Predict the structure of GLPGLI family protein.
Amino acid sequence: MKLILAFIIFIFSSIILNAQQIKVKYKYVRSPIVTIYENLYINKKGNVISIQDSLISNSRNSNNLNPNGSANLESKALYFISDLNIITQKDFVYLDIIGENTYFVYDQNVPRPNWKIDYKNSKTFAGFLCYKAEAVFRGSKIIAYFSKEIPYSSGPYKFFGLPGLILDVRVEGKDYDLWKVESVDLDNKEQINFKPKLNQYNKIQMKDFVNLKDEDGAKFQKKLQKVTPMGSTRTSIVPSNRFGVETKYEWE
């Protein structure tokens, strides 16, 4: 039975690898008040682009991402661009926002997570058999489900390094910072520019961008303290309490 299943997966995977382009649509729960769609595209040349767009829900009075993780989306799409042909580490270029400024960020040599795969733990997502994997990625414990039926070592955001496409991934113990597959199109016909021109944005290296985010968080904390009533609990925003998936970087 195992040999038959392996043969079926091999044949199905071969068909997928011959596809010109695939598209995976994820629902990305970014914070308790913001949910968006993220569309992942992979073409036959090994180009990968993930586009965060299409706001589903938002708080009533938000324009940009606040350092406390509250809403931050305008109609502007955010791109995460990479390639498939890097195994132990990966380079990403992507767009991100601090306040009203959009940055073109170079995140180089992102280490491959040290995934621990549990083939005894499986689920089905969007009709694909998926296996559980766990790892620590930049300070957060991650739980992912990947499918060997879609033989691309990729996933949403900056997740990669498993022997199949990641269809569900989340930070353990949280009901946000998670990506859930909504649909998989194995023969996508959309015209996608995998190398969009982003030169109009502020170019910045990842370390410098992280420093800017931390400084912005400190400014937000000071504003918060000014408006917090005396006697109320005041929480601090410090690098060890960064919001989002990436809370501690490999250089720290």
